[in-house]
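Priority: medium. Attachment 1 of 2:
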């Protein structure tokens, strides 16, 4: 599968890839990660000071998994915005919001992460859960994030990466290229297509060490990197 690299082409491509899979997305994510995705999101949340009132933007929020986790963990009311390009994913997120009385402080917005519709210095945290690979122009995302974050605000990204250990990579590659597409085929042809994209996007993903460098280039400081689950997932953070 050839994945476009130019901004407009990749944006259209990713929108197509994540269309007609939104209904089963949460369930299949838990299944294909053996429920480890919950642990990864909890690690991301541990980097957020939820004891005070802060404003949080969840980029590429999809169905709102990270967004809702933040809202449920918050000790005090705050503003939480979930942003995504996919109207199909946001439809599921808004439907889930209507079923939960405890997450009324959430708002969902359809927009591109490379051009954010917010004024400068609004948010205390920006999160991206398992989706940084989907952006064609990551430098634009980082610059926009730097613009809308307040001083000392944090950018936090959790994403699949290629593990450093060649033995683990061999096993992981077999899992994402063989096992997952077979699982997806059982559900629908749309899911097979999406899981094939997932495998290819991990193979060509920008290494997390380089992501730290790009964040510094965009004006961030105090970057950190944590790898989890034998190195198949990385949490990258940087402070404005």
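Attachment 2 of 2:
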């Amino acid at each position: 599968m050839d994945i476009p690299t130019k901004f407009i082409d990749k944006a259209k491509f990713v929108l197509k890839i994540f269309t007609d899979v939104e209904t089963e997305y949460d369930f299949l994510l838990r299944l294909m990660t053996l429920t480890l995705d919950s642990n990864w999101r909890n690690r991301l949340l541990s980097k957020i000071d939820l004891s005070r009132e802060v404003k949080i933007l969840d980029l590429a929020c999809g169905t709102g998994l990270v967004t809702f986790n933040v809202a449920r963990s918050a000790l005090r009311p705050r503003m939480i915005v979930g942003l995504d390009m996919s109207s199909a994913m946001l439809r599921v997120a808004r439907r889930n919001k209507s079923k939960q009385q405890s997450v009324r402080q959430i708002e969902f917005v359809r927009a591109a992460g490379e051009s954010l519709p917010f004024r400068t210095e609004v948010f205390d945290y920006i999160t991206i859960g398992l989706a940084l690979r989907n952006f064609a122009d990551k430098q634009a995302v980082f610059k926009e994030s730097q613009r809308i974050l307040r001083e000392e605000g944090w950018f936090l990204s959790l994403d699949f990466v290629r593990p450093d250990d060649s033995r683990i990579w061999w096993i992981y590659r077999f899992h994402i290229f063989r096992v997952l597409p077979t699982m997806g085929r059982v559900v629908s042809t749309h899911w097979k297509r999406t899981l094939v994209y997932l495998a290819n996007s991990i193979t060509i993903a920008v290494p997390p060490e380089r992501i730290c460098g790009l964040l510094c280039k965009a004006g961030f400081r105090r970057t950190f990197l944590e790898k989890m689950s034998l190195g198949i997932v990385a949490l990258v953070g940087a402070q404005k």
